[in-house]
Amino acid sequence: MSTSVLPTDSARAATLPPPVINDFCIQVATANGSGSQTSNNVMMRGIFQMGIPVSGKNMFPSNIQGLPTWFTIRASKHGYVGRKKEVDVLVAMNPETAKEDVAKLDAGAVVIYDEPLGLNQQRSDLHFYPVPYDKLVGPVCPEAKLRKLVRNMIYTGVVAWVLSIEMEEIHQALFRQFGAKKKKAAELNWGACQAGYDYAAKTFTKTDPFKVERMNATAGKIIVEGNQAAALGCVFAGVTVIGWYPITPSSSLIEYTIGFLKRFRNDPETGKATYAVVQAEDELAAVGMVLGAGWAGARSMTSSSGPGISLMSEFVGLGYYTEIPGVIFDVQRVGPSTGLPTRTAQGDLMSTALLSHGDKKHPMLIPSSPEECFEMAMAAFDLAERYQTPVFVMLDLDLGMNSWMADPFKYPTKPIDRGKVLSAADLDRLGGFARYKDVDGDGVGYRTLAGTPHSQAAYFTRGSGHNEKAQYSEREEDYVNNMDRLTHKFEHMRGALPAPAVDIRQGAKIGLVAVGTSDYAIGESRDQLRAEHGIETSYLRLKAYPFSDELRKFIADHDRVYVIEQNRDGQLLGLMKLDYTGEEISKLRSIRYYGGLPLDARTVTADLIRQEGK
Amino acid sequence: MSTSVLPTDSARAATLPPPVINDFCIQVATANGSGSQTSNNVMMRGIFQMGIPVSGKNMFPSNIQGLPTWFTIRASKHGYVGRKKEVDVLVAMNPETAKEDVAKLDAGAVVIYDEPLGLNQQRSDLHFYPVPYDKLVGPVCPEAKLRKLVRNMIYTGVVAWVLSIEMEEIHQALFRQFGAKKKKAAELNWGACQAGYDYAAKTFTKTDPFKVERMNATAGKIIVEGNQAAALGCVFAGVTVIGWYPITPSSSLIEYTIGFLKRFRNDPETGKATYAVVQAEDELAAVGMVLGAGWAGARSMTSSSGPGISLMSEFVGLGYYTEIPGVIFDVQRVGPSTGLPTRTAQGDLMSTALLSHGDKKHPMLIPSSPEECFEMAMAAFDLAERYQTPVFVMLDLDLGMNSWMADPFKYPTKPIDRGKVLSAADLDRLGGFARYKDVDGDGVGYRTLAGTPHSQAAYFTRGSGHNEKAQYSEREEDYVNNMDRLTHKFEHMRGALPAPAVDIRQGAKIGLVAVGTSDYAIGESRDQLRAEHGIETSYLRLKAYPFSDELRKFIADHDRVYVIEQNRDGQLLGLMKLDYTGEEISKLRSIRYYGGLPLDARTVTADLIRQEGK
Amino acid sequence: MSTTVTPAPKKVNRIGLEVIQYKGSKTTLCAGCGHNSVSERIVECFYDLGIQPWSVAKFSGIGCSSKSPAYFLGLSHGFNSVHGRMPSVATGAMLANRTLLGLGVTGDGDTASIGLGQFMHLQRRNLPFIYIIENNGVYGLTKGQFSATADIGSKQKTGGVNEAPPFDLCALALQWGATFVARSFSGDKKQLQAILKAAISHKGLAVIDVISPCVTFNDHEGSTKSYTYVRDHEEAMHELDFVPSYEDIAVEIDEGTTREVTMHDGSKLLIKKLAADRYPGTKIEALTTLQEAETAGVVLTGVFYVEPEKDTLMDQLNMVDEPLGTLPESRVRPGQAVLDQVMEELR
Amino acid sequence: MSTTVTPAPKKVNRIGLEVIQYKGSKTTLCAGCGHNSVSERIVECFYDLGIQPWSVAKFSGIGCSSKSPAYFLGLSHGFNSVHGRMPSVATGAMLANRTLLGLGVTGDGDTASIGLGQFMHLQRRNLPFIYIIENNGVYGLTKGQFSATADIGSKQKTGGVNEAPPFDLCALALQWGATFVARSFSGDKKQLQAILKAAISHKGLAVIDVISPCVTFNDHEGSTKSYTYVRDHEEAMHELDFVPSYEDIAVEIDEGTTREVTMHDGSKLLIKKLAADRYPGTKIEALTTLQEAETAGVVLTGVFYVEPEKDTLMDQLNMVDEPLGTLPESRVRPGQAVLDQVMEELR
Ligand SMILES: Cc1ncc(C[n+]2csc(CCOP(=O)(O)OP(=O)(O)O)c2C)c(N)n1
Ligand SMILES: Cc1ncc(C[n+]2csc(CCOP(=O)(O)OP(=O)(O)O)c2C)c(N)n1
Ligand code: SF4
Ligand code: SF4
Ligand SMILES: [Mg+2]
Ligand SMILES: [Mg+2]
Q1: What is the ipTM of this complex?
Q2: Which of A374, B360, C282, D58 would bridge A233 by S-S if both were Cys, CB 3.0 to 4.6 A apart?
Q3: How far, in Å, from the CA of D33 to the mean position of ligand 4?
Q4: All structural domains of chain C
């Protein structure tokens, strides 16, 4: 008998706890670079294929190899895919953290561990399943070099047994993961997986309550990372020029984009690229390329994170003032400075909205799901060209780099909006144009592109003062008129940006406001508040800055409005305060979490209850 | 008869208007690079030496030679030294702008102009004094090359005659301006000056009402530019390392500093420098040097303006998070982007307070006079070391580059505060230290300097997550504790920063809040409001961010509080809103001017009256 | 080639445009500033070669030099960007529309101080682009501080002496990928014209370092970038002539003294040696020549290096021939089938 | 020289410290990473030379390489700054305290991409500083993208091929002011030690480009920065020996094969030629050597250039000898009389 089940209380061991089905959290603790990603994905996909909602979150250190890493898979019949603080099933592969990992568990949790670690000595209120990995790996993996990697697949098999994940699904997930080209590697790993399963089946007696059961909640769904979804959005937006510089957690957005571009955007006839991607020397150059390309008519973009966005400050002011389209993704990580580069935050909201010296404001789109990453990536390009200004798309590490369940993306129904660009024919018709004149009342002037074959096409773009005709001007009136038009343009965007997602509950006195990935914790928290405290809440999730007028109404319609966000300084609240009246502001409360992990429902619920004085 | 005095109305010409004494504004319109600066300064100093409060403002273009420039001297018996919109005496030296300049004048103004321009044809309601400069310059300046410059001194003489500025004072001012070394040049110019005066005396009949009369309001005072005053402050603060990059309107701050350092800070024995000044390759490098030097124990500083401050964003976040002292001057000009580089604004308040990505806030000192430039420069170094953080000193072009009357600066009474630095002896005593531990409750840890001869002195500085001992950490608790301590430290500064200047008027329902150079317009506007509208106002001028608690009380004590500032977006108001409650915010109103010229009293008065619905 | 008959026939170029159509707005630089001469040469060359103004895009950073694009080619789009970072802006624009003729004008402060990183990385990419530095050894617009091209020992107007070695922008360009590298002097009309025309015909990155004195802040005694100093110390390596491709003239050259470089577009640059054998040679030869000139205190001008056919960034990226910026939706938005395929893969 | 008698006498250096006192915290880099070898050499050299750890200040940017200062000299202050901008931070710190021995460790991404401008301007200033580039041709920490030192044709792990010419950081350093320029290989223990020791004795800026393979992202076939490739292509120019100044040893050298370079502090670097006459010579010779090696596809290592006595930034600035940062108030705040004088002038 090799499992030690609450060994000090044999009476309780006899009566099994009631089963907990499709509602638990698996955490795999390993070391960075030890190659457990495949095992974890296979495990997650196995559950997913059984129709159970899942999410996968990787908590990794800012190094390449050897430091502690935790991968968490949450299965939730309720469809909760936000972080859950409590770990139900720990797969303890990392000797360095094993003790601490075990110490943190709630009573009743499962520990699957490497037998020699002897973790079962540590506590008596957990379900322990020790696995002799080294013994098991030898027979299935003759090549010693590969054993370190293959070892990981053994725990997938063990977990499958413990949680009743069907091995056919594991098999399918595994072969899919390796792809047609790596069949041999897949076979090898499948062997390890089976060995784990068989060992568990043969050796263990199931004592814990956690298990999966088939559901039908994932049919047709996909699993995708936010960065991948945004990348796809860029490709379908028709991005043509990319300047970028690597930085975690943003690099994969570009790398996915490059992958898609290579597959789908080479000219079918000539095989040549309908795009240009340049790895710039730094973020200043990256955004400089974006502006140059946007100016010359490309759909251009870059992607970065905090430090890179800071470096773009001066250029973004140029983009604002010269009115050049461009899309900038900020996949937010924890600042300030280098901060925690592999942790998540919503910490750049305010500095990005107000990036650069002088008077200026920048629009931001803030997706909270892969679907929105895809859609907003496309929307961002349209908006940038429609409003002739840099548009930010604010993801965060949680959304960008973690694995999310999503509905398949919908093919865009509207054609691309290239904004107000005059052709030579237009110029013939109009007999000229004034670049910065508000002809249509939306604050947006008409522009021409360099290369337009017309003697009246040219104008001069400058970051210094200019009049409607784009001529150099230091005149007070010209400056003020231009700045007022820019304000008007910004205000005009409110109506054109993605509208908030609003869920008004009858009689709710409390409103919640949030953006981005806070959504998952909030959805779950609202259920907790209702179920546990009888508190009904309305919820408005903003998708863009400047804020929609719906937010104003939402505030008016509720007594207290909690602004929930993932930063220390209450940046979303701050941006709201800039826009709102004292009366409106009086209703606002703040819930902030800034520990670097994805926001979880309990944190929201607890803080709200505390503030409600309950 | 060469003056044409309101020629269409000979009846009125007969009765002279009542004299206007010590209360007018002279504007000299020239072209950039034509060398009129000396003439203007001499004129201003002449008036100043007669005991009359003056100020001099240069409105110059962003080029080096040939574009229109206006220098304005305001003489005010009331001591108003802010901008006044109305020009009373125009010295029209620039043919390019003469027509427009004349057109803008109010009726009754004086025009002194180059005879061939024939400006007297243009209007009939002005006092014209034509001067044949080319004829006059020949005899006084045989050397043709120099005539272009010397020509300017002629108008000084003419103006002296028209306004009764005493020629002895002009003489003294002129010789002082040229200094002992340039006596010959002074003689030459003095000749021109006299020629102008003599010509005027001989030719003109005084028809206008403007004149100066001796007063005693400038005794003991100095005339100085804000950048010069700040430079002197840095020198007396004991600045040791400067990294900088030229940019208008900041360059002269550093150039003055270099000048003073060379004179006063070379070691008397060895002649060697007790400072190091490096012209960096850009602003990123400049602020990098500041941080490196601050880290290693220097009193370090840089100075820049909007575009440079934007480029410093990333580094400033590093300074905040690693807690390194450093002083950064931002001599604000009009943004966004290159904007109007030779115009003034308070447009960087918000982006500087919140500079860099992630959560962070930076203290700012905001002087409004040369005296404060001097004092706050010193205070900034103390605060930076006391609180171990980058401190910004926010000037603007108006304060930094224009000429201001001031009281002589007071020698510092307190010794330099080097903050919490542990020596080897301290370490012996303490047996070690934790760099980021809040030992004293002010949020500020103790630091050691590289080179401290002790085996426990070393610690590792990093922009990534760290614990109290400055060790690398990605732990949630470490991160949150550290960030909370930083918040606490920032809050703690409120009490330590320069207190606001408060003028509470009994029974005043209206409060005014402002910073920096808005002060001059506001002082004058309050008099206008009282005299013309019977409105009594209280006034609180903030000198620093984070704001003193006195501001909170001030808001509480008034019904309506107007936040007056020189930018489009209401940035000072915005920063206040971030701090205040809805109830407090309900009282706030906004008066903004962003035309690039120094704020004037009429603009404030008119907007306030409009908002008061009067 | 203009077919419209005008009452008083004006002088036009081969595409029927008058020289005025190549001019820009009135300069606001100081009278006598070297930069104005460069602008004039640009006007002449584009007129002479009959280049369609709207096929050109002008770029600059910040500085007096960087203002100059406003003063030539008023019918071309222009972009006066931020200090030192024009190369990235130009790169983006050229990628968006590779059919443009890209022309950048910048200063030594812009290029060698704040912009050195971008300048160097531009070299590596061999962007098809003409990059002109109007090099006066100082920051003109901010009133005369030293730039990083100021020579050791050179004196500031206010008396300061430069102690740090200057960056030789030709040497940097040479070593790191520019395929056309030349130095000239704003006062040398003929040479600058020939170099400019050859640069216009060049396929890749052409870097032209033009010594262009600042009359206001760096034209005094003790300066090594003053008109006097440069006139006294200039040594032209060779005599240059440019024969455009459309001029179907058989040029007879003396092989002993003159070499012919055929540019990518078929134009010819004729290089007649003056003293030692100073034709453009290998990179290392050119570098050595530059080093020797520096040691000798000579301002060596001429074409140091030409490599007419090297792959450009666009070649490396294997881009389609048309401007990316105006490709129709059908070519930049993949169809429904592609999305379906990706969704299937993610299921 | 340690006078304390300990029960079990441990091995100490000339200032009585054990080697452990030169170590840092445990590395978090990958097992086998070249950077770890460099850290080990640093520990050894500072121990061997008996340098007081607290007289040293360590600097870095961001990257795997830039993490390494945490892994050596734990008793020295360290500063891990921002990506690519370490040179300015180090400059500031060295100005604040010129008595420090400044040591920077950075990567090729840090130095040649985002940091190229600062790197180049550092050269111009000849800051007394040791600048080590742990050069692996890729961005290790962001998972293997090419850096600007990747050779043309070099293959990425994921298949991409580099098309842009690499910056040769030794060539750049050489040309723009560094007074000690060397290249080594993290796998060449003896050579790296000698070079490091000589750099420590050097008065001005010492730039050491260490090829330091990234086992995780750039150690595969097709990489030109892999252990295998460098081992196969390395050519040491000479054999190096270092004799510290305090070792009062009469060194006998064969003038025909060995040259001696006396460093500023009196130490001696002995350079024994191996093949052709490859001693450090003039800059232009060194540049030529580098170019030839590149053309030949050889990874040439050794000391390319030494100029032991050139003025440093501190000399140029004519600074007092003491650390500026800790000058007493009496020396940095002028007296009342000075203020009075200035006030008088402004009256
Ligand atoms: C980020 C930034 N820093 C500083 C400046 C101020 N500035 C304007 S022009 C200039 C130097 C220009 O020198 P150079 O490129 O040599 O041009 P020149 O005026 O000599 O032709 C500087 C430092 C700026 N505009 N932007
Ligand atoms: C401003 C900024 N941009 C991007 C990054 C992300 N980043 C971290 S390390 C690195 C590259 C490091 O490469 P290298 O200097 O060669 O070091 P290596 O890891 O190869 O040793 C990058 C791009 C960053 N930290 N800061
Ligand atoms: S200041 Fe110098 S560079 Fe600028 S326009 Fe005048 S002469 Fe030219
Ligand atoms: S990723 Fe490469 S550079 Fe980074 S630690 Fe690992 S081997 Fe070294
Ligand atoms: Mg210049
Ligand atoms: Mg590297």
Answers
A1: 0.97
A2: A374
A3: 5
A4: 19-316 (3.40.50.970)
